[in-house]
Specification:
Layout (H helix, E strand, L loop, with lengths): L12 E14 L9 E14 L3 E2 L7 E2 L11 E10 L3 E10 L2 E2 L12 E2 L2 E11 L4 E8 L7 E3 L6 E2 L4 E8 L2
Antiparallel strand pairs: 1-2, 2-5, 3-4, 5-6, 6-9, 7-8, 9-10, 10-13, 11-12
């Protein structure tokens, strides 16, 4: 984009929340030496302005005390399950992002200032050829879900479509 890189002050605000991350590994100690690590994370965020002001910055506009800060979803959830051993690792992950507003405000979000919630799944695989060489492949957004991520600058921005990448990693 061609943003101005100008800094701006959003006046007083309070951002508070809680995050929970749980990690567990099952299948440890099996004869196959397979592991099944599971990761769950949840974030709850409450982000509000604490003063009234008028801004020329598009995402703020006329702000009233108690308005929600734009581009901060209230709920985010991530789940990952992997199957791994010393030779390979495959994983499937899913992430949910709650709807959020693209301009300061309260209450229900008008359609022109709303980014809808999304649920995206990704797949990753790694093959450890040697301790220094790893082959990898990733499929992002495996369900090819259409979703929005932003409205600025210059209008609605889509999220990434189905994407495949692969490569070789070398450690030295």
């Amino acid at each position: 984009g061609e943003g101005s890189l100008d800094q701006f002050n959003a006046d007083e605000s309070v951002v508070k929340g809680v995050e929970l991350i749980l990690n567990s590994t099952i299948l440890t100690g099996t004869q196959s030496k397979l592991k099944l690590p599971l990761t769950y994370s949840y974030t709850l965020t409450d982000a509000k302005f604490q003063s009234d002001f008028i801004s020329e910055v598009e995402i703020f506009g006329e702000v009233n005390k108690g308005d929600q800060i734009p581009y901060i979803p209230q709920n985010q959830l991530n789940l990952t399950a992997a199957l791994e051993n010393t030779v390979y690792q495959v994983s499937l992950s899913a992430r949910f992002t709650d709807e959020f507003r693209t301009q300061a405000g309260t209450g229900s979000i008008p359609e022109e200032y709303r980014i809808g919630s999304s649920f995206i799944m990704d797949f990753a695989a790694r093959y450890f050829y040697t301790p220094r060489i790893t082959f990898f492949a990733n499929i992002m957004n495996i369900m090819d879900t259409e979703y929005e991520v932003a409205r600025t600058p210059a209008g609605l921005r889509p999220g990434s479509p189905l994407l495949f990448n692969a490569g070789i990693g070398f450690s030295f």
